[in-house]
From TrEMBL:
This is Aminotransferase. CDD domains: AAT_like. Belongs to the class-I pyridoxal-phosphate-dependent aminotransferase family. The keyword Manganese does not apply. It is an enzyme of class 2 (transferase). Its cofactor is pyridoxal 5'-phosphate. GO terms for molecular function: L-aspartate:2-oxoglutarate aminotransferase activity; pyridoxal phosphate binding. It catalyses: L-aspartate + 2-oxoglutarate = oxaloacetate + L-glutamate. The keyword Transferase applies. Pfam families: Aminotran_1_2. It comes from Nisaea acidiphila. Residues 32-375 form the Aminotransferase class I/classII large domain. One of its GO terms (biological process) is amino acid metabolic process.
Length: 383
């Protein structure tokens, strides 16, 4: 007898996780690995976050919280928007979530019906299209390149076939690191407002930028769904804590979905995350290290033969054209790991149609690792 299996799980893998698995296997076998595959800071959570977590374990029973999170954290996140963007928020608009991944699930479920069509830039974060596909929503990929700075534009949206129900923007972008300025973000929010397209703005890399200010969609549209996370700037990946700023028309349905899917975000992480906003010096030191790492790769990768690189305005990624060496980025990535111990993510994770000739390098790790990785690549590609 065979049992029914839903097709919802019939989505492509998140390939970076496969690369991580291969890298771990190499390490277990005694090989060394320079980890440029995953967007994970090499630093732990800030000191005050760790102290707050220890204090909470001693003083709190760590039970459930309300599905939208504890009030002090929601209030502190609302204040963050005033401090960083000059945007006034009611804390009731803030929903604390189980990482940004939990936020995407709730947002997509609340905003879109099965059969709806949601646009996004390609290359882009693969989980957008894979989660939407699992929910029966059609991802509409807008092919972007250097001429668009790898970001969607009103012209690209106009050129998309058929009606659109939603648009996902990510600034800084993963994998290209490009960012939307105030005018570009305002043009997209205006377009979506006029066309009745629900805008979801992924802002999880805000704070990690290099000379360009991170612009929130909320600065030009208070109806946008804004998603953020403690994983990147706040260096808390494994704590699985994120948040959303929720439009008033979706607040009730999002809360009910969160109640049923997650009960509450991780309680210990919420108490710890509250302290993260008081760790500015430590967090800015991390950003300064990312800036050094970025400079190393932008200088040394061209010397290794990789001279077609996306601008990397923000986040901690460099998207590199490797098409002169391969038309199979997955095989190229595997060979690179096996032969020189450098792990990077093949471009097909971000661009299924054109990513066979690209790689994403993460510079979230130690500066010494960036220097060594560039040296190994130079020897390998020039050898």
């Amino acid at each position: 007898m065979s049992f029914k299996v839903s097709r919802r799980g019939d989505v492509p893998p998140f390939i970076v996780m496969d690369v991580m698995q291969a890298a771990e296997a190499r390490e277990k076998a005694g090989g060394d690995v320079l980890h440029l595959e995953v967007g994970q800071p090499s630093t732990p959570a800030p000191r005050r976050v760790l102290e707050a977590a220890k204090r909470a374990l001693d003083e709190d029973r760590i039970g459930y919280t309300l599905a939208s999170g504890i009030d002090p954290l929601r209030e502190r996140i609302a204040r963050h928007y005033k401090d960083w963007y000059g945007v006034s928020l009611d804390p009731a608009q803030v929903m604390v979530t189980t990482g940004s991944s939990g936020a995407f699930q709730i947002a997509f479920l609340a905003a879109f019906e099965a059969g709806d069509r949601v646009a996004m830039a390609s290359p882009g974060y693969p989980a957008y299209r894979n989660i939407l596909s699992a929910l029966g929503v059609e991802p509409v990929l807008l092919e972007t390149g250097p001429e668009h700075r790898y970001q969607p534009t009103p012209a690209l949206l106009d050129a998309a076939d058929g009606e659109l129900d939603g648009l996902i923007v990510a600034s800084p972008s993963n994998p290209s690191g490009t960012m939307l300025g105030e005018a570009e973000m305002a043009a997209l929010t205006r377009y979506c407002r006029e066309k009745g397209i629900r805008l979801v703005s992924d802002e999880i890399y805000h704070g990690i930028d290099f000379g360009i200010r991170s612009v929130s969609a909320l600065e030009s549209d208070d109806n946008a769904i804004v998603i953020n996370s403690f994983s990147k700037y706040f260096s808390m990946t494994g704590w699985r804590l994120g948040w959303m700023v929720v439009p008033r028309d979706l607040a009730g349905s999002m809360e009910r979905l969160a109640q049923n899917f997650f009960i509450s975000p991780p309680t210990l992480s919420q108490f710890a995350g509250l302290a993260a906003f008081d760790c500015g010096d430590e967090l800015q030191a991390n950003v300064a290290r990312y800036a050094r790492n970025r400079e190393v790769l932008l200088n040394d990768l061209p010397a290794a033969g990789l001279d077609d690189l996306a601008p990397a305005d923000g986040a901690f990624y460099i998207y590199a054209d490797v098409s002169r060496y391969t038309n199979d980025s997955a095989a190229f990535s595997t060979r690179m790991l096996n032969e020189i111990g450098v792990a990077a993510t093949p471009g097909i994770d971000f661009d299924p149609a054109r990513g066979h000739g690209t790689l994403r390098f993460s510079f979230a790790g130690a500066t010494g690792d960036m220097v060594e990785a560039a040296a190994r690549l130079k020897g390998w590609l020039k050898g």
